[in-house]
Amino acid sequence: MGEQDHQGPRAVVEHARTTFTIVGTAHVSKASADEVSELIRSGDYDAVALELCDSRYQNLADPDRMAKMDLFEVLRNGQAGMVAAHLAMGAFQQRVADQSGIEPGAEMKAALHEAESAGLPVTMIDRDIGTTLRRVWRGVSWWQRMQLGSGLFASLLTRETVSPESIEQLKEGDVLESTFAEFAEQSEQLYRPLISERDRYMALRLMESMAGKGYNNVLVVIGAGHLKGLSGHLEGEPAADPVSERESLEQVPPSGRFLRYLPWVVAALVIAGFVIGFSRDTELGVKLVSEWFLINGALSALGSAIALAHPLTIVATFLAAPLTSLNPTVGAGFVAAGVELLLRRPKVADFSNLRHDVIEVRGWWRNRVARTLLIFILSSVGSAAGTYIAGFRIFDQLVGG
């Protein structure tokens, strides 16, 4: 195959009688998209593998997929934060597209189109983005979680021009890596699930589904940042059991026992504080309960108010938060978002315009879907803050008294 002026980095690896030509692409580059198209049109390959998971493939194939989601089911299943994260990364991606004139992932779209035209089988080899995000979340400390959450939320609200450094980062990796690049460079706990685990996962997927399965030459299209890691795994010792190892990388580590039981412990301590307060003096007990309701309800309602919730939603949040904090099976955010849905149900246009509205700061408040997600998140944060502030207040008064 002739050299091309815009040829990106490549590696050719033979594994189990199958030759893998691994092309490292720039995710924001017309040249990479053209290169991938030319390679598939050459007729040298009998299969194509892409650095995509099924959900990202569906988003490429159907850009308006989110418009079809059931928002209430999202809230009930505790996926509001995940959906908001997807929207935040999508907003970042769209800003890059607007600024550079190149849609991120153009080379993946080109590969899908050319493979379909050539009648070649296509395999998605990347790990599900939701699994990766959950493994990242579970693998870091609570302090790093706060940093990640605040950083993601800041990118959610910013409309500033994307820096040249961010665009260069996106050329090497995907939008997921670009979003957390600053943190990943400083943390092994982040680097492992975000980069190295995915290198291994993609190698296992190739071993499992393509190596030795009758394919002679497979074109593998991945971000340039994964080229070295993926080729190294394919050149190394074959996995004893690719399926089992791949499945182990799909498991989300359970949250620590302490974190699982912490909400119940806090609720038990608060109730115990009420009991002790009333046993000492009725007036003290009433004061503790009143402060609990006022602090917890006010901070959670403040979160709803910042999200510009309906006035009745704000009232409902104020009343519900002190009670939901004593019953960890139901969150204040779920109640707040549920009431908002009843009062201001999103219209078809809100779902249709969701991807474009969230690019702008005002769009998060203008679009009813995005605003409901903000209400869920901000009221939940307010309730959590209120729980611990009011809890320490109760403790201080009991000890001080």
UniProtKB/TrEMBL annotation:
Membrane-spanning segments: 261-280, 292-319, 325-343, 372-395
Name of this chain's protein: TraB family protein
Signal peptide stretch: none
InterPro entries xrefs: TraB/PrgY/GumN_fam, TraB_bac, TraB_PrgY-like
Record organism: Vreelandella halophila
Pfam family name, one: TraB_PrgY_gumN
Superkingdom assignment: Bacteria
Keywords carried by this UniProt record: Membrane, Transmembrane, Transmembrane helix
